[in-house]
Structure formats: structure tokens, C-alpha cells
């Protein structure tokens, strides 16, 4: 049946109007994204100011503020093993003006407390990787071991239950050592601390026997003999402590884990903004200013695309879910 000319004409007008509206919307969206950032960008760090996550994040955001000509306001919102700040970031508008300093806790905390944590790893999209500060496997000087294999034999001897530091359930230090214990077949006594600065004095005094400590924090204590380093969780030896073997050299390569840090955005953040941020982060990491700051912290610089960082976050969620099940790790909240 032929269409009446008037109906065909009206349909043509409607299609033209819809097309014009779509083009106008696309144009406005493009202009808005092109103008980004038009105001300061908030970067939520879900851990205390002055900590490793805060310092690694600022090494990059200070540079982004210069290249993007807008302040990047780093806001420390600690509490509940990172959940308070991370939840705030998850609830933020996906407009490119709120970012999260993402860490392994971003993906592990929802696994530990699925009923009480009010966000999921899938609430975020990866923007860019920054760096990975390695951990040192350390013991108190009083512990009669010189290597990780000797530590395992000591813990299995039946003389005592190995006491270990735990700076927060689900933190990278905690899960990294649980991965090692799982592979070594050890059961341990966890001693809970609010953070690494609080646990280091007890380790040095021998009140607790073993712990994973961020390399930069442990360095002065190892140099002065207050802690003994058995291995470093890194792909190669650290120039600051060249005598300390890697996990692979110590015989536990499968326990290798670098605590990755990067920036993530609420899911739904426009792709052009995510891509631009990713490019800017990688450019920042290539500068001597930023790379020098990270290297002083002992951090391995880990540039990569937004897609690569997003894939890392997803794969880490799968990896740690298995460790959490095997070790029966439960949130204390």
C-alpha cells in the first residue's frame, strides 16, 4: 500500500528533527568533553594523608595539575580499610571531576564484606596505572632465621605459632603475606594493627615475629639492624638493598605480588575523558620529575592504558577471591 504524500512528508520532517537533535546533543557533549577539565578535579585517597598511597598519587596529580591547567585536589578520606573513601568515589557523578586512588583494596574489600560494603569493583573503570611499591618480607632480629625457607622450617617446627603483623584486613600487605602462607602451608597468629607505622616498632622489639612492610618504610630499619629482610616482593632486586633476594630467588616465585596503585573513575565517565586522563598519566610518568619521586619511594613505575589497568583490576578481583576463600579471611567490620 502506498504511503500518503503528507504522511511521508511528516515522517521525513520528524526524522530530520530527530537527526538534528542527536547532532546537537553530540555536539554539546563533544564541547563539554573538549573543555574538560573546566574546574578542579577531586582525587579521593581512601587512606591517611602522608601514607604510601597518598604520596604515590600526589607524584602524578601534581603533574596533571600543570599539564591540564586545573587543580587536582587530593582528598584523604580514610577509614574502614579504605571503604569510606572508596564508597564516596563510587557515588560521585561520572563526569570526570571525581577520581579514586585505586589499590588492591578497591577490589578485595567487596569480597571480604559483600553484605556491608556498599560498592563493587565494577562500580569503577580503570583510568591508568601509576606505580607498584614493593613489600619487604621482614622478621624481628630475635627470630633465628636468615632466609624464607628457614622461616618456613622455623614455623613448622612446632616450637611456636608464627606471629605476624596485619596492618588491615584486605590490605595489600595482609593479602600478600596470606598468599605466601597459603603456598607455604603455614598457619599463623595474626596481630592486628591500624597501619604500618604502628606495627614496625613491635616488629623491631620482637613482640611480633614476621611481617610485610612497604620497602620504603622498612628501609631505614633494615639498614640500622632493627629489622631483618628475608626477601623483596619484586621482579628484580632493589638497588637500595642489593643483598636481599627476590621472592623467586628465595624459592617462592608463585607468591610474587606487587601492590598496584593507579587512578580509577566512577563507571560511566565519558570515554574521551578517561582516554585523555590515561594519556596524561602516561606522559607524566615519563618525566624525570615524576619518575624520580616514585623511584625514591622504591616504586616500580607501571605505565599502561586505561583498558590495561581496568583489566588488571578485574583479574585481581578473581585472584584474591581464591586466596580469601583458601585462607578463610573475614572482615572485622
Features:
alpha/beta; D-Maltodextrin-Binding Protein, domain 2; globular; 333 residues; 6-stranded mixed beta sheet
Task: Walk me through the structure.
- The protein has helices at 5-35, 52-67, 83-91, 104-112, 148-156, 172-184, 196-205, 215-223, 271-285, 288-296, 306-327, and strands at 41-45, 72-76, 98-102, 124-132, 135-139, 163-166, 189-192, 210-214, 228-232, 261-266, 300-301.
- 46% of the residues lie in helices and 17% in strands.
- With 333 residues, it is of the alpha/beta class.
- The relative contact order is 0.17.
- The strands form three sheets. A six-stranded mixed sheet has the order 2-1-3-10-4-11, sandwiched between helices.
- The protein contains eleven helices and eleven strands.
- Strand 1 (41-45), helix 2 (52-67) and strand 2 form a beta-alpha-beta unit.
- It has two domains: 39-133 and 259-327, D-Maltodextrin-Binding Protein, domain 2 (3-Layer(aba) Sandwich), CATH 3.40.190.150; 135-255, Periplasmic binding protein-like II (D-Maltodextrin-Binding Protein, domain 2).
Amino acid at each position: 500500500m502506498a504511503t500518503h504524500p503528507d504522511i511521508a512528508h511528516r515522517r521525513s520532517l520528524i526524522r530530520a528533527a530527530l537527526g538534528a537533535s542527536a547532532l546537537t546533543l553530540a555536539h554539546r557533549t563533544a564541547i563539554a568533553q573538549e573543555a574538560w577539565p573546566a574546574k578542579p578535579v577531586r582525587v579521593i585517597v581512601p587512606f591517611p594523608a602522608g601514607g604510601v598511597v597518598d604520596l604515590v598519587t600526589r607524584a602524578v596529580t601534581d603533574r596533571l595539575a600543570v599539564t591540564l591547567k586545573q587543580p587536582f585536589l587530593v582528598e584523604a578520606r580514610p577509614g574502614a580499610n579504605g571503604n569510606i573513601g572508596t564508597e564516596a568515589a563510587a557515588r560521585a557523578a561520572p563526569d570526570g571531576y571525581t577520581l579514586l586512588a585505586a589499590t588492591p583494596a578497591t577490589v578485595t574489600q567487596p569480597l571480604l564484606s559483600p553484605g556491608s560494603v556498599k560498592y563493587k569493583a565494577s562500580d569503577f573503570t580503570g583510568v591508568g596505572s601509576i606505580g607498584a611499591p614493593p613489600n619487604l618480607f621482614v622478621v624481628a632480629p630475635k627470630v633465628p632465621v636468615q632466609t624464607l625457607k628457614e622461616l618456613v622450617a622455623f614455623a613448622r617446627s612446632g616450637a611456636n605459632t608464627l606471629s605476624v603483623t596485619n596492618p588491615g584486613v584486605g590490605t595489600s600487605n595482609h593479602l600478600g603475606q596470606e598468599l605466601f602462607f597459603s603456598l607455604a602451608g603455614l598457619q599463623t597468629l595474626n596481630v592486628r594493627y591500624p597501619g604500618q607505622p604502628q606495627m614496625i616498632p613491635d616488629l623491631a622489639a620482637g613482640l611480633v615475629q614476621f611481617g610485610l612492610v612497604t620497602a620504603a618504610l622498612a628501609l631505614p630499619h633494615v639498614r640500622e639492624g632493627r629489622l631483618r629482610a628475608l626477601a623483596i616482593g619484586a621482579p628484580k632486586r632493589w638497588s637500595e638493598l642489593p643483598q636481599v633476594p627476590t621472592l623467586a630467588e628465595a624459592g617462592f616465585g608463585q607468591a610474587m605480588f606487587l601492590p598496584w596503585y593507579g587512578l580509577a573513575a566512577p563507571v560511566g565517565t565519558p570515554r574521551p575523558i578517561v582516554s585523555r586522563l590515561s594519556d596524561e598519566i602516561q606522559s607524566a610518568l615519563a618525566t624525570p620529575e615524576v619518575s624520580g619521586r616514585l623511584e625514591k619511594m622504591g616504586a616500580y613505575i607501571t605505565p599502561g592504558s586505561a583498558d590495561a589497568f581496568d583489566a588488571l583490576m578485574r583479574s585481581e578481583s578473581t585472584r584474591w577471591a581464591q586466596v580469601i576463600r583458601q585462607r578463610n579471611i573475614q572482615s572485622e567490620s
